[in-house]
């Protein structure tokens, strides 16, 4: 059965089937090859995209902007001081105004409830560029990177080390459950992911028959044994800067260093990070700059996967 994502939101990967995720990754690969061949497209010609940013951004903003222009569309950046979202004007009203002027809306901010309310009222596709709970466009880029490296996703052992309840750990767990991966979170008990989400991901794996394995543990060296990819993120996310001193104490044993990468037992194991990285904290400079690191492949792949998300939902296909 053909996959049709026309008019679809991307709020998290919860609502996408494994076939739809595979379709997005295949489309991303094709669009990446097209760009590398120097072919400018028109799949977004005549389309206008609103880019709402409550939080600052490098990769997400640049990826949406370049991806849109590459295919002939017009991106309009709307920073927190440019519009009245949630201040003078409530989210529903902003959504209805922007939905009458734009063909799609990206939102990067704090509350997942805001991006969901935008989607409810806008009348056009809404894409989550990051909230405190989920970061789905990053996961697509991560999975494209893993697929490029190993040729497949099903059966890949992906280990996330660090703050086990942040938006990346949440999003990777959902994606891994859908795609049949062996996903492990290694973190202190105080930073384990929500039990409800772990149970939901195990249920997803069972219902879609992906064969995914989801594990949560405290011992980082035991967790990474046999890993194809080791993933980490900053120890204090945006808005949590006041917790950094405390996090440094409890997360120091979870630093991704050469010793931890060796503990995978796989010479071909790669290192992943959504960036920006605080080198010397969650990852050492040695690992970040090593032959194992694929962080800049991931960063580039944000653009190709975001392009696929936009093209599949509002493009001239």
Task: Provide structural commentary.
With 317 residues, the protein is of the alpha/beta class. The chain folds into two domains: 13-134 and 299-314, Rossmann fold, CATH 3.40.50; 138-298, Aspartate/ornithine carbamoyltransferase (Rossmann fold), CATH 3.40.50. 43% of the residues lie in helices and 14% in strands. It has twelve helices and nine strands. It has a five-stranded parallel beta sheet with strand order 7-6-5-8-9. Strand 5 (157-161), helix 6 and strand 6 (182-186) form a beta-alpha-beta unit. Helix 2 (59-70) crosses helix 12. The radius of gyration is 19 Å and the shape is globular.
Assembly type of the chains comes to single chain
Biggest sheet character: 5 strands, parallel
Instruction: Please state the overall shape, judged from the principal axes of the Cα atoms.
Output: globular
Give the CATH level 1 class of the largest domain: Alpha Beta
The CATH homologous superfamily name of the largest domain equals Aspartate/ornithine carbamoyltransferase
Total domains? 2
- The CATH architecture designation of the largest domain is 3-Layer(aba) Sandwich
pLDDT < 50 stretches: none
Q: Count the DSSP helices.
A: 12
The proportion of residues in beta strands is 5-15%
Strand element count: 9
Mean pLDDT over all positions = 96
Helix content: 40-55%
Give the termini distance in whole angstroms. 17 Å
- Gyration radius (Cα, Å) is 19 Å
What is the spatial order of strands in the main beta sheet? 7-6-5-8-9
And the CATH topology of the largest domain?
A: Rossmann fold
The helix/strand series, from N terminus to C terminus, equals: HEHEHEHEHEHEHEHEHHEHH
Structural class: alpha/beta
